[in-house]
Amino acid sequence: MREIIVRIAVGALLLGIVAAVARSAPPPDSRDIQITIKALKMRLKDQERRLAELESQQDQQHLEKARREAIREVIKEMNLDADHRSAGPKWLDNLKFSGDLRLRYQTDCFSGRSRKDRNRARFRLRFGFKKTWLEDQMEVGFRLTSGSNDSPTSTNQTFDTSFSKKNIWIDLAYAKYTPKQLKGFTIIGGKMKKTMVHTDLVWDSDLNPEGVWVQYKHKMGNVEPFAGIGYFVVEENNRDHDAILVAYQAGFNWKLAKDIKWTCAGTFYDYDHINNNYRGANGNNVNADGELAAGQFHVFNLTNKVGFKAFGLPMSTYFDWVHNCGDSDGSRGYDNQSDGYAFGLKVGKNKKKGDWSAGYKYAYIEANCTPGEFNDSDFGGANRKGHTWGAKYNLTDSLTIGGKVLWTEPVTGNDQNERNTTVQADLAWKF
Prior knowledge:
Elements: H1 2-24, H2 30-78, E1 95-110, E2 118-133, E3 138-145, E4 157-158, E5 169-177, E6 185-191, E7 210-217, E8 223-235, E9 243-257, E10 260-272, E11 298-310, E12 313-324, E13 339-348, E14 356-365, E15 384-394, E16 399-409, E17 420-430
Antiparallel strand pairs: 1-2, 1-17, 2-3, 2-4, 3-5, 5-6, 6-7, 7-8, 8-9, 9-10, 10-11, 11-12, 12-13, 13-14, 14-15, 15-16, 16-17
Helix pairs in contact: 1-2
């Protein structure tokens, strides 16, 4: 409509100018008239071009305004109250799924002749969920994992047996209650993660005990004392005594400075009838009757951990000591084999892309100081001493590459000259 109006106005202007010239001037030369008309036509085209640009700008402004209105509507829909959402079933609220996949290549080299060197490709797959109710006071967790067998200290699955399908095991199945009315109190039942303060001197990182654990913490300024007690079933035996573990722990978390935190815990692990209810000695001495020669495992464990920053890097160090108060083994070479200790240092943390960490550990674990069935299986269980070096790097926030070297040998026994060197290369993805 505007274009028509402009054309009419310019046409009228053109005719008026021609008529005025005709009335007030002598008859012009036809050539001059043509030049004038041509100039007016060019001006008309310029006016049309400017009008088109103005209309285009207005259209663009209308488009931008419409786009902003659409974005506002989407944001408004996303911010609706939970009662008005239709995201899915109610039971999906506060349900969190997680898992990880690790690919590993491992080489074991033995200096003695009793064992053959071994090379293995392996994987570990874990996936599960946890659900919370009552404003996070109640939590239920469940996780499945891979594994070549039902060993409590390994979730690795070796590539073998002619491309056969691989097993899946229940790794976690627990319920946890942390009432707000009693702040600091926690009770967990089922197959659970280890909540007591510990290192792999006593517990392998893959082991999850079964039973019940009760703990209480109370913060007082920079110091947080805590105490806990646990009742765990090691072996249910319908022909003899069950093997039971009762664990008692007390300690504190102490924030010494802004970037320095010290955790100290004393734990007593009281095993009942484990000497004839065990799956594998794994370094513990065994007598002629096939029982653990230590007789009893009444294990005291003192753990110290310190986290701090140095040179702008997060660091942590620990010292752990264990002693079996119930050791009664008098066998040659195995008497007084009731102590163990370990210390380590770690630099860096792995949380996001570009993060890295490196660590070192030395451990000296005598044959009867702790059940070899439950401590660090990569290190070799009980009756081992040696070193561990490791490093890890984040390729992305969820993908890491890392490696570890373990150099170990027996503390006592007939195989003291047999050294084991283990090299592990890992690629791990968390989801």
